[in-house]
Amino acid sequence: MTNFCPNCGAAIDPNKNTCEYCGTVINQPHQSQPTPPPINPQAFGGFAPQGQPQQTPVNSNLPVKSKLVAAILALIFGGIGVHKFYLGQAGKGILYLLFCWTYIPSLVGFIEGIVLLTMSDAAFMQKYRCRLQ
Ligand SMILES: [Zn+2]
How far away, in angstroms, is 19 Cα from ligand 1 center? Predict the structure, then answer.
């Protein structure tokens, strides 16, 4: 039985426990770890572990929105909820309009604009159910 060096892959004399090519010390077969039990597909909730993980396809029905446009709207017109209407949250937009006289929506909108700018594209698409160009 021939051993193979785990470091360089060279065949090693079974009577030696060091690789003559790179000097790596080889564990003899009887000292090696026991082979792990075969993977039980049931342990993965019925999903077979092999194969590509299921990629969520980009839903082409989702509206295309720009994170930058949303952020700019929030920063400039955040007080009247323009960015909320843009992002399809008309209910919240109306709330901003109703309370715009308190200037609180302006503050919240400004903060949301900063959050939108720093948000990752993936988080943006997930949160607002839209896709980027
Ligand atoms: Zn080697």
Answer: 5
Looking at this protein, which amino acid is placed at residue 17? N
User: 30 pLDDT exceeds 60?
Assistant: no
pTM: 0.54
pLDDT at 122 over 80: yes
| CB crowding 4-41: b at 16 or more within 10 Å, else e | ebeeeeeebeeeeeebeeeeeebeeeeeeeeeeeeeee
Mean pLDDT of the chain: 84
Answer yes or no: is pLDDT of 49 > 80.
no
Angle at 17 between CA 15 and CA 20, to 5 degrees: 95
- Alpha-carbon span 23 to 38, nearest angstrom: 33
Q: What is the pLDDT of residue 52?
A: 55
Distance 4 CA to ligand 1 centre (A): 8
Q: How far is the CA of 124 from the centre of ligand 1 (A)?
A: 49
How far apart are the CA of 35 and the centre of ligand 1, in A? 23
CB 96 within 8 A of CB 105: yes
